[in-house]
Write a structure and sequence with these properties.
Blueprint lengths: L3 E4 H4 E5 L10 E5 L2 E6 L4 E8 L8 E10 L3 E6 L5 H10 L16 H5 L2 E4 L2 H41 L18 E4 L4 E4 L3 E4 L4 E6 L12 E6 L12 E4 L13 E4 L1 E2 L9 E3 L2 H5 L5 E3 L3 E6 L5 H13 L7 E4 L2 E4 L1 H5 L2 E4 L2 H40 L7
Parallel strand pairs: 3-6, 13-18
Antiparallel strand pairs: 1-8, 2-7, 3-4, 5-6, 5-7, 9-10, 11-22, 12-19, 13-14, 15-17, 15-19, 16-21, 20-21
Helix pairs in contact: 2-4, 4-8
Length: about 400
């Protein structure tokens, strides 16, 4: 396959991002590392977005539609004779983050990008390369959408059973709708089903404890682990390998543990984000898992109540109540776990939580299968990308 040498300035048009508007609307706002908000206005469409400032400068995103590119990013379009999708993958391959200037505040300028030398095949071959890589990305995106649907189904089931109280009664009928008896609880100041207890959230918990970040290099007898950081809370896919002392082996995750991010957040995002660890989660990795010391592990007295506990926690997080349980140390927000879990809450009968767990685990198994498939697809795509771009693999 014939390759032609270019400077990226011959391939790309560059446009500055702008300070995002305050309006709320349907158009995504791209910051230095992806979507950060949605607004009512747009300034670009069908473009490539490159982060220009901060630790994530050089991050490359592609958006097919109207969007707002903030002043922390650069909007890029391709000139005639070049495939946008192929150039997008080329930019991903270049590892632009390593091209920045500045140490305290990394910066990637249009001039730096413009002067980078690249090699590209003819337009038809660019389209063929892009079609192969896009097909893999499309399947990854489809799997993510399916997982979002599974998560939504799990949330609806939780709401139906534990918010609306229409869990199946002994005859299989929706409890509250068919007249199941309710009782007013003065602590919660609302009605709950007869037979439910009210106790602190901590009554579910055997122990909660910080993770262990460990070391980058192994010492004798250290344990190799994959370490979940706050950035990994959502997907738990590409976690760093670390080494922890055998004395800290109690920090290794078990099935049905819940990881909570206790430090970080932002003015608009509270701490307290959580993720649920299943046996299938642990089986996706070739080493045991732990979490960093910016996270905390919650281990329950009864593992079969973990599905209920996790969705309850997610409900609290979505309500923004965790903002009320944050303190600050050196400007960093910290979640006050012990204060929060002292909060009284309704405790359903165990048999009901067990039934919920059976159904919930079926959702989680499907979700984990799709995540594992996406890991394989991502690995394949990342292996093919340089081979296609340098002509070692040719698409006919």
């Amino acid at each position: 396959m014939e390759m032609t040498k270019y400077k990226l300035g011959d391939v790309l048009n560059f446009y500055n991002g702008r300070l995002r508007p305050n309006s709320k609307g349907p158009f995504p706002v791209f910051g230095g590392n992806g979507i950060i908000d949605y607004v009512a206005e747009y300034n670009y469409e069908n473009n490539i977005i490159v982060g220009r400032v901060g630790a994530n400068c050089g991050s490359v995103q592609k958006y097919d539609g109207k969007c707002w590119v903030s002043d922390n990013a650069i909007s890029v379009t391709v000139k005639d004779g070049f495939s946008k999708d192929c150039v997008y993958y080329l930019l991903k391959l270049l590892d632009l983050n390593k091209k920045h200037v500045g140490a305290a505040q990394p910066l990637l300028t249009q001039e730096i990008i413009s002067n980078l030398v690249v090699y590209l095949p003819k337009y038809d071959d660019q389209k063929k390369i892009a079609s192969v890589l896009s097909a893999l990305d499309d399947k990854i995106a489809l799997n993510k959408k399916m997982n979002q649907k599974l998560e939504a189904m799990a949330k609806r089931l939780y709401d139906y059973w534990f918010v609306q109280y229409d869990f199946p009664d002994k005859n299989g009928h929706p409890y509250k709708t068919t007249g199941g008896p309710m009782t007013y609880n003065s602590t919660l100041k609302r009605e709950i089903p007869v037979g439910w207890d009210v106790a602190p959230i901590s009554e579910f918990i055997e122990k909660n404890f910080n993770g262990e970040w460990g070391k980058e290099e192994a010492s004798e007898d250290d344990i190799r682990v994959h370490c979940v950081r706050g950035a990994d809370i959502v997907d738990m896919v590409d976690m760093p390998v670390r080494y922890i002392s055998t004395k800290k082996k109690d920090r290794i995750l078990n099935p049905n543990d819940i990881i909570v991010e206790i430090s970080g957040g932002s003015p608009t995002q509270s701490t307290g984000r959580a993720t649920f660890v299943t046996r299938n989660t642990l089986n996706r990795f070739d080493s045991p898992m732990t979490c960093s010391n910016f996270c905390q592990i919650i281990r329950l007295k009864d593992a079969k109540c973990a599905s209920y506990f996790f969705e309850m926690w997610q409900k609290f997080y979505a309500s923004d109540i965790f903002f009320n349980f944050e303190g600050k140390t050196s400007g960093i927000k910290n979640f006050q776990t012990d204060s929060f879990i002292a909060t009284p809450w309704a405790h359903p009968p165990k048999e009901l939580m067990y039934k919920f767990d059976e159904m919930y685990q079926s959702f989680m198994k499907k979700k984990e299968r799709l995540i594992a498939e996406n890991q394989k697809l991502t690995t394949l795509r990342d292996k093919l990308l340089p081979l296609l771009m340098n002509g070692q693999v040719v698409v006919h």
